[in-house]
Write a structure and sequence with these properties.
Elements: E1 10-15, E2 37-40, E3 46-50, E4 53-56, H1 88-98, E5 102-106, H2 115-118, H3 123-142, E6 149-150, E7 152-153, H4 160-172, E8 177-179, H5 198-207, E9 210-214, H6 228-231, H7 241-246, H8 251-264, E10 275-278, H9 285-303, H10 311-318, E11 319-323, H11 327-331, H12 333-336, E12 341-343, H13 357-364, H14 370-384
Parallel strand pairs: 1-5, 5-6, 7-8, 8-9, 9-10, 10-11, 11-12
Antiparallel strand pairs: 2-3, 3-4
Helix pairs in contact: 4-5
Length: about 400
Amino acid sequence: MPLQDWMQIISVDDHLIEHPKVWTDRLPEKYKADGPQIVETAEGHHVWKYQGQMYPYIGLNAVAGKEPKDYGLEPVRYDQMIPGCYDPVERVKDMDIDGVEAALCFPSFPGFGGGVFHRSKDKDVALAAVKAWNDFMVDEWCASSPDRLIPLAILPTWDVDLAVAEFKRAAENGARTVSFPDAPAALGMPGWESDYWHPVFDVANETGVSLSLHFGSGSFVPGFGGSASAAFPNPENAKQSSFVAQIPLYSTNLMWALSEIVFSGSLQKFPNLKILLAEGGIGWLPYLTERIDYTWERHRFYTGIDQVTRPSDLIRKHFWGCYIDDNHGVANRHSIGVDRIMVEVDYPHSDSQWPHSRKIIGESLVDVPDSEAHMMVETNAREVLNFPRKVA
């Protein structure tokens, strides 16, 4: 059936472009000179300057409203973006145009999981910058429309004790999820097989605040030199075939993460841990779940992994799949679990269907019963993010 008017779309993966004063307005005076700030290049481009390095924006980060034929890889200026990219009041207006009720927005300049700050040389500045971003998210971005914009936090992932402290602070301030690297080992940190991250899992387990693993948040891209920077598009290369080949494979990041976490033994220790697989699609979940069970049946006896709990039970309990456009996944929703599927709009990135998201999502669910469609577009997200519908 068509998407009913009473169904509210909750996008669990949108993005914001930080405005130029996010850090200059919030960092302590002693850190401002080395903190993130927008500068204009000789070519007239707006770029971030941070600890002596330049970080250009890429056009594909802010193409909402453009036709695909007009996409480009060149850096952009703020006046070349529509204001909803960086202004929360205008964002909500764009959501109204798109038929979207609420949105969870990931960072841009810091990286999806704060990787820019993780790689910083001066960690005192980096820690202050992480806290400033989290304060901006709650006190400015979401405070402008608290029933429409969902608070998300990033963590100082270079130190687990700092990460735990900031996780607790963010949760107390209203964060509904924490963006966490999908591949911490790629950042030079212990991987999922280690118990190093258990204190972070413990906070998530106790507070009910989920972990969102956005593809690429760990700066790792399989098959492209092992790093996001190796796969990043070079504006001087007109063909860009490697970059284009990367795009359909983004979900492989989250396949790796899911498999590693499931076999790590961590999930058995944190029964309330909730993990969102952001911008990974869902069509692969039935196959990978089946393959993981098959592997477990044959290799659990000599590898030291859990010999009792079937991996598919862990996947079904702890993970939520998130998709933008995945007809195969929708058709196989019962193999995934209808209550474990959520939709994404991805505004203002190149996968976004803005301003036609509600129409296109509705068309993709035309053969799905109302009760199931409602779960996928709204109630699953409200439950996992603890973001109830406003009572009139």
